[in-house]
Amino acid sequence: MTAPTSPPARRTRVVVVGGGQAGLATSWFLVRDGVDHVVLEAGTAGHEWADTRWDSFTLVTPNWHCRLPGYAYDGPDPDGFMTRDQVVEWLAGYAPTFGPPLREHTRVTSLAESEDGGFVVEAVGPEGPESWAAEAVVVCTGGYHLPIVPPWAPAVTRAVTQIHSADYVAPDQLPGGGVLVVGSGQSGAQIAEDLHLAGREVHLALGDAPRVARFHRGRDSMTWLAEMGLYDTAVAQYPGGATAREKTNHYVTGRDGGRDIDLRRFAVEGMRLYGLLEGLGADGTRLAFRPTLRAALDSADDVHRSICRDIDRWIETHDVPAPPGVAYEPVWEPQEEPTSLDLAAAGVSSIVWAIGYRPDYRWVRAGVFDGTGRPTHTRGVTSVPGLYFLGLPWLHTWGSGRFLGIAADAEHVTGHLTGRAGPALTEPASALARRVSPAPAASSVALAG
């Protein structure tokens, strides 16, 4: 029997892998510049916003952050927080504004350098295998691929249901009884809150995630930080440089108009808090925790206060009108450091793992990865000519993995790809913050006082 042959390669100048916000932003610039390209998307454009967010999800950044090249949120509430479904609807309106050459339901299976220069991209589309030959490839698949769970998770008693935060939808998807949420980053803290508000008994194992005030001095903290230039500051300029990429994002929520997430308040209301989860006993039901609860709470509060002080200094230095701040005072202190939890005795029937993801670029055959499997690059430009990455957390700035920073990074990458020179189209976040969500007026400050 004759072995099946590969389909003849279709030729294009650029293949963009991924049709989320990063891939679409890349395509916008390529369409503008008249560059022949194709966008290959495994599902549908922007599908991950619907597939990996829970029912009550809201953005943790203000709506005015939602902007892509040639397209920005223009609704009635720039300082509010869109729900999951509103984000999906907003993002769905983007592609029709410029008509990207998008091939949906086309999963890329391999990317390799070709012998005669350029790249060969293999994919499986609706009609079967297909191959693309391109001068350049922009990988826009994000940095969150494989959900992380502890290697010993399969040894947990089968009486306990286990899911990853990527698969969490709503409290009623879990069996009755208590729920252990492991991880206190953005997803873990918000899922714990969602379960808590639904009346579930929640146990939360904390990591080292920091927290931030939702509002300070009459304005959203992230708007202050944007005006202060933090979303425009390159990662190399942060203390520790590229190590900033490893930091966990601050937990906060946009739910019900936005508010702080105060784990101490949850404890007062009955949530059980623990330190870092360390392991599982031989019986498959008893978990061990490190005595780090108090340190984790104190550290998160220290970051909260530090950010508020930074905002205060900015206000004073630039003589910005703003109402006085309110100092945070802890509402609860742990009386002990719990170091164990018997799942059966405590009635815990479910575990939600919210401890992150690891990258999976096994389909990319190019020498651009470090020892952890992450691509090495300078603002998305790799050492392999013609190979780029976009949409990664901290690709260049704090905003790189978010709507707010995508346009600037896409403009940089496509400019490098095409050799196009000229003034940047993308407005800095600091200028946007002043224009779209200005500081409180003097009259409102007087009224607040």
Describe the protein.
This protein has 449 residues and is an alpha/beta fold. The protein has two domains: 10-145 and 359-418, 3-Layer(bba) Sandwich (FAD/NAD(P)-binding domain); 147-357, FAD/NAD(P)-binding domain. The protein has helices at residues 21-32, 48-51, 84-92, 186-197, 221-227, 263-268, 293-317, 343-346, 403-418, 429-436, 442-448; strands at 10-17, 37-40, 67-68, 71-72, 102-103, 107-113, 119-125, 128-139, 146-147, 161-164, 178-182, 202-205, 215-216, 219-220, 272-274, 277-280, 286-289, 340-342, 348-353, 357-358, 364-365, 387-389. Strands 1, 2, 5, 6, 7, 8, 21 and 22 form an eight-stranded mixed β-sheet that branches. Helix 1 (21-32) crosses helix 9 (403-418) and helix 5 (221-227) packs across helix 10 (429-436). The termini are far apart. This is MSMEG_0569 family flavin-dependent oxidoreductase.
Can I get a quick summary?
It contains eleven helices and 22 strands. It is α/β, with parallel strands linked by helices and 449 residues long.
Please estimate the helix content.
Answer: 10-25%
- Poorly predicted parts: 444-449
- Rg, rounded, reads 23 Å
Tally the helices. 11
The name of the CATH superfamily of the largest domain reads: FAD/NAD(P)-binding domain
Tell me the total number of β-strands: 22
Distance between the termini: 84 Å
Keywords: Oxidoreductase
Protein name: MSMEG_0569 family flavin-dependent oxidoreductase
Organism: Nocardioides cremeus
